[in-house]
Structure formats: structure tokens, C-alpha cells
User: Fold this.
Amino acid sequence: MCGIVGYIGARKAPPVLLNCLGKLEYRGYDSCGIAVAAGDGLTVFKDAVRVHALVRALPEISGSTGIGHTRWATHGEPSKVNAHPHADCKGRIAIVHNGTITNFHQLRERLTRTGHTLLSQTDTEVLPHLIEEYYQGDFVKAVARALADIEGAYTMIAIMAGEDNLVAARKDSPLIIGVGDRENFIASDVPALLDYTGRVIYLEDDDLAVVSAGGVAITNQGEPVAREENKITWSVTDARKGGYEHFMLKEIHEQPRVIRDTLTGYIAAEEPAAELIGTADDRLEEIVILASGTSYHAALTGKYIIEGLDKIRVRTELASEFIYSGYAAAGSLGIVITQSGETLDALKAARRLREQGSRIIAITNVVGSTMSRLADKVIYTQAGPEISVAATKTFIAQLIALYWLAIPYARVDAGRLDDLVMELRSLPGKVQQVLDNEAAIAAEAPRLAGCENAFYVGRGINYPVALEGALKLKEISYIHAEGYSSGEMKHGPYALLGEDKPVVAVVAPDSTYQAVITSIKEIKARKSPVLALVPEGDETIADLADAVITVPATDPLFSPVVNTVALQLLAYYVAKERGCPVDFPRHLAKTLTVE
Amino acid sequence: MKQAIILAAGEGQRLRPFTVNRPKAMLDIAGKPILRFVVEALAESGIREICLVVGYQKEHVYDYMGSGEAFGVNIEYVTQATQLGTAHALLQARDVAADEFLVLPGDNLIAAATLADFVTAGPDAVLVKRVADPRRYGVVGVSGDEVSEIVEKPEEAGGNLVNTGIYAFNKDIFTFIGDVLDIPDALNAMIGGGRVIKAIETEATWLDAVYPWDIISLNSAVLGTIAARQGGTIESGVTIKGQVAIGEGTVIRPGTCIYGPAVIGAGCDIGPSVCILPATSIGDNVCIASFTEVRNSVIGGDVTIGPGGIIADSVIARGGRIEGRFTAASGRSEVLINGEGPSGNVGAIIGEDVSIQSGVSVRPGAIIGNGCQIQMSRVISGRLPDRSLVY
Assistant:
């Protein structure tokens, strides 16, 4: 998991590269570096620091061709020597790389035998030395030959002193080319380039691109290919904080608009997936939903939504587990949920599912992502780029996509169907009400901020909400938080309860209501303070819990939306109270393109 | 002149219930917040470096304006934690102010023409406008083209030139602010100290909403200037006349008549057989069911209106859910705020997130607070406080 960039043109390369890298820090940020070519020389400058720190330490480097990298450690600890770019023995070739080279031990041994000196513990460093080995006057050929020796994922950019080309290759991690006027850019993701250009080319797997200031030539397995240019319609605003202290809070606040935009796109479209779901007489037997992390919580919510409305059996599986032993009968329908469309586990799981004979609907936020090309049908969420490592708006957009997928096939009477669509359309307003109540939610943050352990409980369709609430808290505030179905607390976790272990209880006015009340009483009897999330108008829970956060009343089916937003805000203010780096939590990175 | 400092921290208490959850600058007129009109007027005038002073409910400003790229400007934010006055607000921007800059209220609606002569005038200057009734405003005494004094809300107006709150300053202004809380007081101090302040008059748009019903007149004034635009899907048998702007993804169903000027947002579902008459603005994600007539009204985003309703000269803020056979007919207002009432007819003034069951009627001028819930077939008059339940 890394971010890589390249520039070739007339500008001074270092400021361009570092500006682009700053916008890719969400992909990893334990170290960074650049390599710049000028005349017959190549300068590498790197360290185990964040981009802004590298900018401060930057010496004068001339040259208008360069590459850059911001790293998320996979092989070798974060250190100066392990930071990219990596160079060959003579310091004339340098590489930035995103992915994992699986046969690097063999390659390393071979290179050491033939007299190369490798300095770092990284897998990447074999690449520049391989290119050096194969170089006989043709840089592009040498890169292609070197890549042929590589097993694994090798999205990378190569630079060589004295050459007027950068060579970029894509395998398993995203890479795009930004087209400029007598200059070109390369990056892992679009926001990195939006300060410079809105014209981008998405590379495909196994593409090799030779990029000069004047043009781009792409080949795939040695054959020239044409890749169309895309216009980016969203602006660089999306990649900046616009007044907020953190991207996470900004993204939480974008959610009413995200729901509106996502719904607007769907309402204008045809039926979401008629040909895949089948007809009233010929229904699907089973749907398998695959996802990881926060997306997995959307998947679990999706199980309640689809089973409840459509009466189709739904199984949810963690993508990271499914890849080893998962099985679905041929003719099943798979729904794969991945924000980035690049999560390696999700891609592998989807491929496995397809090999077993399932059709696949992808729910993803990134147009042109690998998943979007792999699926039979794609349902895009309109969340825009998400910079905060903790997912918020993309989760809510995934829920909206699942509602939209399920509602047209609901086995309910027509009146109920109308009500559901109306209630779905009222969600942007209800989420705005949660946001307008932000101060009241922030006021409850101290109840959790001083603790090192917490539980989140919910039941029914709000059980996944409890899991997601706990995940948000642990990832940004570093409080150990566990999400449970309130029905499962008595099977072990009750042993842990006590005054210093608060419990956040998600209450919905559905068939689980009485059961959750009973749980709250049992938890109180074991001395844990209870903070309850209740719909407006509820007067029972306030007497039982230590404190309540009120959310707008909605149909229980949609309560996960308002409840999750309230829990996002709670986690944010707890993390802020504890002084945590909200947008860049330790040890985490956003899109996980490694296993 | 390259920079503008926009004061957008104020609440606008007299505009409640609309300003309970958002600052006055973020109230929608003709489909966009007042602040956006100000920012667009500046961008058109070539001023693209903008400092926004925010305070009350500032997140709504962040959420809409972002970093400014969507509007072709670069926005920097500073915060005024407590709203003590305009000079105090300006003082918060001291560290980011350029040598010369404009100061504008973010909650008065202007157009590019308003600033045409002013951007080239240079400091120190104040933009003034001639109005019929100056008693609500600061009256500017002028000798030649220089300001002699500013008198706030005088009982007896000495003239009808009023202060628009739009100024051109250089950094010296900060030395005159000191403990003074409002800019006119600082100006009077400057004049007392012998500084010359030019008065520049405009005849172009400068509109201020003071009371909730003012939104209706501002809306109809601005709608006269909009350009027609058709996004979304217009189904067969729809009649559209005059200037009508329709957003992306909106569906207009058969039998619907829309007579402009009117603005309809994105993602709406209108009809079948809905009648939208001049001068009406409708926000994003609004549903209006069959046989409802809407005239000279402002309807916020995410609102749902059931079938068979009549809505005239009314404002319905965002998020409301209104069932069928709703009547908000227009007439002489029965409601006064601070002893003042609307000069013409008015319908209903309805806050955010209301829930109104079928068959409810609202008396002219009645104000329904945010989050009110009203049961079937009630008749509402007077003022309902926020979150009232009417059984």
C-alpha cells in the first residue's frame, strides 16, 4: 500500500512531485521520497518522515523529470534506507513501486551472486538492479525484461538518468496518467493530479506506458493499445479540507449530499439489477455478499435489508476468508462491496466466486477501478474521494446502494413500498438533523474518552451498526472497543463489565426493542455506564441509561443510517478529546492493496 | 483590489425559525444561499481571494462553500467565536488581510453590477444605496462624495442614502477598531480623526432579509434574473413557459405546468399534474404529488408535499414532510415580529423538518417552528414554537 507519482515536463519537478505526494498520504505515510533526473545525473532524496517534513528538509534539486513515493511498509520497517525511490548500483536508475514482489528472495540472491549490492530489506530494490542488469542501451526494453522476471504485484514507475522518458507499469494496483500540455503526470490516484490536470488515462493490468513530455505510448504484452482519456468532473475541492480541522469531520458532514447524489443517480436509472436478481417466479436461491472492514458492516446490514424485504437468503463472508475456502453454488449472485474497488482481498474473492459460477454485482466508489471492470454489473456510490482513513461517507453510500438494490424487489404491498421510497428520500434531511445535533453528541464524548475499553451493543439490523460504531472508535481513538449483538453479551462479555467499561447501546423501535431494554438493565446491574442511542420521542430509555443521544425517528429499516452517523460523530469527538491524529491513525492505511 | 473579507458569522435572530440551524448567509434564495451570490459577484468582479469570517453554525458554510474551487475562488476561513459585532468580526481576519481589501456582509444579496464602480475606487470607501425607507439601516450623511457620518437606525432619517455594509479598506482600519465592536463606529472614529472616506453610490441589486417573509420578496426579485436550464427528465404532456431552471436527475411528470420564473433543484419528483406558478424556488430532492399548486413560494431541499395542496406566498424550510390537502393560502398576516409585519399578503412560514398530516390549513402569516408535528385536519394560526406537537 503506497502512493506513487511521476512528472515529466518543463516545471521544476520536486515541488510538483511533493505536492502530488501530499495528496496521496491517505495511501500510506510512514516514509516518502523523490528521485529527479537532470542531464546525466539522478538525485534521490528520501526519509522515514511525512511529506511535509520532507518538504522542509528538501535541498535545491534541479531537474524537470522525476518520480515520488509515499510508503506504507510491507517488507522492511519504515526507515530511510527502506524508503523509496530505490536505485541501482550506479545510481542511474530509480524505481517507485506499489505492491508486493513475491519472488524477491530468489531475485535478490541471483542479483547478489552477479555482483549487485542491495542496501535495503525491501522487495522493491530488486527492480532497479534487474533493469540495470538488462540495460543494453534501451531503457524501455530493460524495464520490460525486468518486469518479466517479477512475480506478484508491481505497479511502478522507473526513471533513468539521461533518458527523456518515464516508464510506468501497472499490475494489481491502480495507476493513472494525467495528460497535460507538453507535460505529463503519473499517479496512483486522481486527487494527486487535480491541481494540474483533469484529463486522465486509467492504465489496465499488464500495461506498460512510456511517458514523455510530449506523449504517452502504451503497450500490453508487447502490443500497442489505445486507452481512452477521461475527463474528471469533480474538482480538487474534494481533496481539501474546506474549513474543517479533519477530513473525517468534513466527510461526515458531506453525508446528506452524498445520500442525495447517490439517490439522484439511482432514481434516474433503470431498475438496479432485474436481470441478475431474477423474476418473481424464478427467484435466486442465495446471495453472497463479500467485503472487508467497514464495507463488511455494510454487507451485514445488507443481509438484514435484503432478507427482510426480498425474502432471499443472504450470506455474508469476509473477503479475506472467502479467498481460501469460500464456496457458493453455481448460479448464485455475489455482491462485492469495496470502496476503492482495489482491495486485493475483495478482488481475489470476487474472482474465486466467479470461477465457481456466480455472477457479480460490485458496489464501489471508484469509476474505472479494477473491481468495476471485473463485475457483471456495477452500482456506483456517489461519495467522491474519501481521504480520511476511517470510512464514513462511503459506508453510508454503500447502505443507500443496498437499499436501492433491495427495494424494487421487495415482497411487500404497494403502499408499504411507497412509504419505503419516501422514507429513503427523507434520509438526507434526517442525517442533516443528526449533524445539527453535533454539539449534543460531542458533549457525551468525555464518557468514553477516559476509558481504555468500551462495548457497543445493538440487535437486529442495528447489530452491524454496533460493530461499525466500535470499529470507528477503535481505529481513530485507540480505545479497545468491541461490538456485540446485545443478545450475545451474556455469553462471556458480561464478565468484563464494570464502572470503567462503558457500553454504547443502539436502540431501535422494532421487534428487538424489549430485548435491548432487558440487556441495558442487565448491563447496568453489572455497573457499566450506558450511553444509549434512541429515536426521538422515546421516553423509556432515558430513565434506564446514564445518558442518551437522540436521533431522528425513522422507519427501523433505515435506522442504521442515522444511528451510524451519530456514532461516527461520537468516535470523532472521543478521538479529538484524546488528541489522536484523526485522519491518519497509527498503523493504518486506506486502500489495502496488500493481503 | 484582490482580496475580499466576507462577514458570515451572524445568526440573524429575527429570521427564526430559519436561522436556528444555519447562519443567515446560508438561507436559500432562488435555489442558492445568499452567501453564494456574494462570492459569485466577487468572482465576476475579478476578486478571487476570499476570507470568510464564520461563527454561528459555521459547518453549514464549510459544507456548501468548501475551499471555493466550485465557485472559481480560493477561500480561507477564520472564526469569530462570539458574534459581538462587525468590527470585531473583521478584526479576526487581521492576520490574513492583504494591504487592501473589500469587506462585505455575507448575508446581503448582491450582484456583480453592485460592485462595478466600487472595486476600482480603492480605500477608504463605503458603498451606499438610496432606499425608500431608511429607518431599518445605517443612514450615511454625505458632503460632496465624502462621508460625514453614519447614524444607525435613526428615528428621523436625515437622508435616504444607507450603508450597504460594503467597504474598501487598507490595513489601517485595524488600528481604528480597538475596542469598537461595529464598523460604522470605527468609521465615525476615522472621520473624527480627519480621514477621508469616499461614499460611492450603487443603483444595482442590494437586498436584505430581516424578517422571515422577506425571503419571499427577495426570491421573486432574484428569480427575474435567472437563465432557463433543463436537466433531468421532462415527461410528455408537461407545459413549461417562461424562464425555468430544472436540475439534474429531476423528473417532471405528465400534466404538470410550470410557469416561470421558477427554479427546481436536482433529484426532484414533481407531478403528475402539479402546477408551479411564478415566482417559485424548489430545492434538491423535493417530491410534490399530484394536483398541488405552488405559487410565489420558496420550498427547501428534501421536502415532501402530498397531493391536492395549495401553497401561496409561503416559505417551507428543508426536510419537511407534508401530507395531502395542505392549505397555506395567502392573505393579510396576523403575525407580527417586533411589532412589524409584512407589507403585502403572505402565506405560511414553516421551519425545518416539520411533519404535517393530511388536511391541515395554515392561516396567513402563521409561523410553524422547526420540527413541529401537526395531526390531521388542524387549523394553525399565530406562532408555534420549535418542536410543538399539535394534537
